[in-house]
Design brief:
rod-shaped, 0% strand, mainly alpha
Length: 68
């Protein structure tokens, strides 16, 4: 097997590993989102004081890794 073949093989394995890693990160991020939204709705439905619409958007936007 030539060096190019070896490097191609390693690159293919790395690509698969990082693809699997990115799916895991996406899964964790989506799980945290679902938990945050669920926690938010449980809080709204209980006896806690109602949040204003602006406070709601600020709370939800705080989970985004970007500025809205």
């Amino acid at each position: 097997m030539s060096w190019e073949g070896v490097l191609r093989h390693i690159h293919r394995k790395e690509r698969k590993r990082y693809a699997r890693y990115s799916w895991g990160v996406l899964g964790v991020w989506l799980t945290l989102w679902v938990l945050a939204i669920g926690y938010f709705w449980v809080g709204r439905l209980s006896d806690l004081p109602e949040m204003t619409e602006e406070e709601t958007w600020v709370a939800l936007a705080s989970f985004f890794p970007i500025n809205l």
